[in-house]
Structure formats: structure tokens, C-alpha cells
Amino acid sequence: MSGYAVVIPTIGRRCLRDCLNALAAAPGPPPEQVVVVDDRPRRDGPLNTAAGPLPVRVLASGGRGPAAARNAGWRATSAPWVAFLDDDVRVTTDWRLRLTADLAEQPGRVAGVQGRIVVPGPAGRRPTDWERGTMGLAAASWITADMAYRREALAETGGFDERFPRAYREDADLALRLLADGWELARGQRRTVHPIRPASPWASLRSQAGNADDALMRVLHGRDWHQRADASRGRQFSHAAITAAVIAAAGLAAAGRPRAALAAAGAALAGVTQFAAARVAPGPRTAREVATMAATSLLIPELACWHWLRGRIGAVGARPWPDVRAVLFDRDGTLIRDVPWNGDPARVEPLPGAAAALRAAQRHGLATGVITNQSGVARGLLRRADVDAVNARMTELLGPFGTVQVCPHGPDDGCGCRKPAPGLVQAAAADLGVAPHECVVIGDIGSDVAAARAAGTRAVLVPTAQTWAAELTGARVAASLPHAMAMITGAVPFTPVWPDDWTARGVR
Fold this sequence. Notes:
This protein has 18 helices and 14 strands. By secondary structure, the protein is an alpha/beta fold.
């Protein structure tokens, strides 16, 4: 059985209680953790998170949007899988049983498993434009209304891109990055109900802000991102034509060309009429719905174009998420030759490529640090002063480093710093003034990768004879330290390798 945590971002809607109650009532293996992330800009009182015996933890993300809220949530978990739910969904009674089955059967290459979304339509009438939009979620791919991801895959890809401020396209962006990295995504059998919540008649106008996210998607993923994300292109081209006709009509009128202006205005009106008719036809066709469609159809094309242009300008020069600010190196076997229990500075020997890698980090303005397990201290084979002397010699030969973090404990001491625990990564990041997810760890064995993933950050492995294939599913692999730095700085692809690939390379 695969352990899992549940993360639910919320803006304090009353439906959160229904979501938690449904999760608590479902039989089957319970989540190891339930993290509710309060994304209200202002926390006006506590949330109602009573969920029976479930262990609910509440975090605050400061109103930075659902992508940032989900990242805060999964980084606070430790289970192998993280199931994301929206606060307005209700899992079905067999959800926990089916989720466990969905996750247990997945091979190591599968990064995420999507649930099946059920959206009940209105009874006895055709759905409105807003209702049809919500009902479309039932056929959407990779939406986080119910999506479970391997925690290690989230760490390796950097999680959700926080430049997407709305609950729109941030899920497709993550899916495309995972697929590009060689992971696979699957569909499970569990079901989750997504009710249609009431909305203002002007909701369709506010939703046009999503065009800015579409523009960012195009910059990040190319022209064909819609096809690869299984997403509709919408009416971008017809909206652009209507907007161009409106601008032309205004310009021609100002230039004293009334007949040409009328022709352009007529073309714009014809486009709006066709657009409004397409929205009215499948709906209930009540007087209110027809009036709403007519009024909003006049404004949507121009708003859509404005937001798309705004997003396109804002996305100029956008770098892949997340932006790397620091590199944390393992010491023995990565920067210097691995001499067991070495306390003699005279025996410190930099490995080939170490100096070049550190120079590359400096050229790109990256902070550097060292994280190293030194259990010889706990075993009585070294003094802490010996470790410090070796570190000083390493720094003299290769440094300077922004921080050097040492774990002196033994494997059975139960500390939180010894790799594969995340403590050294977290302490080094704090010392460098960066977030853990803004770091990349470079090491030579599986515990280096595991420590990075536990801290919610990525890793690059430079394998040695001590590297085991079974530990390293989805790890990035470099042939040398300079090659690892080329991955980190974007000069070569930053992609993972899989166990069968490792076997072909002769790694154990």
C-alpha cells in the first residue's frame, strides 16, 4: 500500500467543511496527513476544519494563489504520494479505497494519477453558459480538483509554477513539465463530485483574465501546448478579428471615413452576433440568459485580447520554473575524493571537474554550499575539529563556499540532519538566504537525492561505483560535475533517468 497525504487549498469558502467531511466519512486507508492551506489574503478568523479523526494541519500562504498554496501544502508533507483536492469538491464514499488501489498499481515512471470528476448538471433544463463551463471539468486532463502526484516527482520538477496566480493552467503547466521530463501520467478509477457553484452573471468577464495565463503557457511550452495539454484553443482568433474590427472602426471614424468605419463596425457586430448566438443556443434560452450572453459577448473579445497581450508582454524572458539560486554539493565522492573517515587535511584531493563546476556556479551568480554526513564523529573515529580541518582545506582548494553544513551523527541517532533526511539541505538554504526549492543538490549516491526530495528540491546525480540503480527513480544524471552545472544553468537538458537506463549504463 502506498501512503498518501491530502492537500486542499482554500480561500475560506463554506464548502471546505463539506469537502473534509466527505473525506473523513470515506472508508479505507486514511491519509497520513491532511494539509489545508489558507490562501486568504487576510485571515478573518479560523477555518472550520473539523474532519473527525483525520489529522488536519492548517498552513497560511498569504493569498498568493492556488499554485503557491499547493506548493506550501505538499512541501509540508512526507508521504510518498500527495493527493490534491479543491475545497469545493466532495469525494465519493469509496474514494479512499479506490485511491489506494490507483496508487498501488503504478510503476515508478508514473508521476501522477488523475481521479474521475463528476459534475452533476441542472435537473429539468439545459445548463447555462457558466454551468457548461464547469461541466467541462469532467473531461479535462490533469486538473487538480482531484490529482495525486508522487512527492519525489513534485520535488524534481519544482512543483507548481507560482507565476500562474489563478486556478487556471497551473495544473496543465505542471503536467507538461513532468511529461517533458520523461514521467508518465495515468487516469485512475476513483471518482470525485464537483458541484456547480453559483456565479455572478459577469463571471465570464472575470474569467477572461485566464488569457494572460494562456500567453504564459505559449512562451513556456510553445505554440502547440494546447494539443499536448488536451486543452481547447477557445475563440482566440475570432476574438482577435472582432477586436481588430472595433479598433479599425474607431480609427476610421476618427480619420473622417464614415463609410469605411460603418463597414468595420458591421463586421465587428456580425462577429459578436455569431459569438452570442453560439453561447445562447445550447443554453436554457431564458430572457435573463439571453440578455447576459448578449451583454457579455460585446465585451469578451476585447477583454480576452487585452489580457492575452498583457500576459504576452509579462512573459517576455520568462525562465523555466523554478529559478535556481543556489547549488548544494555533497562533499566526499562529489567534490573531493572519498577517503573513509578522513581527518587529515593533507589527504584532501579535489575530484576532476570540481573546480570548473564551482567556477561555473560563480559565473552564473549562484550561491554555493556543501552538505556532508560525517558519522565518523559519532563513531569515535574522528573529532569535529578534524572534520573542520578537512573542510577548511577543501575550501582553500575549491572555495569559497557560502555555507558548509555537517551532520556529525550516526545512522541510528535519529537526527533530522543526516542525509537522506532534509535537515542539511534546509539549514544550508536558510544560511544562504534562499528557499529550499530554489536550490539544486549535486551528489553521488541515493541519499543525496533523497535528502533533496525530502526538502522539496531537485538533485543531479554524478554516479560513482557507490551508486545503486534501485534508489534513483527519476533522478537527473550527469557524466561529470561540469555536466551537472550545464544542466543547472540550462546549457543542456535537465531530464531524469530511469532504472532500466541505469542498468544499461552499468550502474548497480
